[in-house]
Amino acid sequence: MKISILTATYNRADDLEKLYTSLVINNNSGVDYEWLIMDDGSTDKTKLVVDNFIKQGIVKIKYFSQKNQGKMAAINNLMPHATGELVMDCDSDDYFVTGAFDIIKKYADKLLDDDKVYALVFLKKNENGKISGNLFPEELYRSDMFSLYFKEKITGEKILVFKTEIRKKYKHIIEADEKFVTEARMYNQMDMDYDILGVNEAIIIGDYKNDGYTKNINKVFATAPLGYYEYFKELFKLDFKGVSFSKKMYIYKHYILFANLAARENAIKNVHGFFNKLMVLILWIPGSIATKRKFKHEHKRVDFMDEGY
Fold first, then answer.
1. What are 31's strand-pairing partners?
2. Taking 50 as the threshold, does the pLDDT of residue 304 lie above it?
3. Minimal CB count within 10 Å: which of 37, 147, 159, 244?
4. DSSP for 221-262?
5. What pTM was estimated for this model as a whole?
6. In sequence order, what E strands does 25-148 have?
């Protein structure tokens, strides 16, 4: 079994050392792995740092570079180079727990031998050992990503390890010149034909950076609304049976938010389902006013080139 680890990085040279060290520590796991790095136009010493890793000859590393296009484009461009049976993303400021590959190996057959499963979903924890969000109801919990978060009350960031042959059929759909789109949009596409298996073991450690996407979410929303708009529009085509009212309200409000930020015409008409359309219609005016107030200082498009990931 071989794992391909994909890292998109921009101006995070100092963080890569910790990720590299965690790969070295896991080098005795008996699991074959490769680390594929896409340098998304960094202006720091990223290339020098990675060259030093490669010279040490401990970890199999493939280094690529491109003009800055954003994290999702970087991952899209790395995927064709993945040669492992399993593939996963690991952010440049995250790193693996000791024994992470042994944990993955323990459950790999459950993924590889099931034609209807596209990923194992593991836990993530911070440096203090606190798990992000909550646990799955049981080990090898079978579901899909939409149901996990909108119907089954799962919270927190999770780590997906994909079956490569399935993952290569999909990509992050990027709208216009935007440099970010939520991973959930691709997951929803995969959910249409496949399931996931939840595992209550953490394999990644990481905290949110002050200059990262999550810490600057309003800026992300303001500069990349088109992809989010399409994501929420696509949600209306899914089965809402079992989705709580509060989660439905979350969808309605965010759809209105991104329809306004993206200046989408016929946004109400594009909503699938009579009840959904009615709720969006009712909430449209107050939602539009709230968006204008909240984002009145974010109207100017800014480039993510000044932030790392």
1. none
2. no
3. 244
4. HHH-HHHHHHHHHHHTTS--TT--HHHHHHHHHHHHHHHHHT
5. 0.92
6. 32-39, 61-65, 86-89, 95-96, 117-125, 141-143
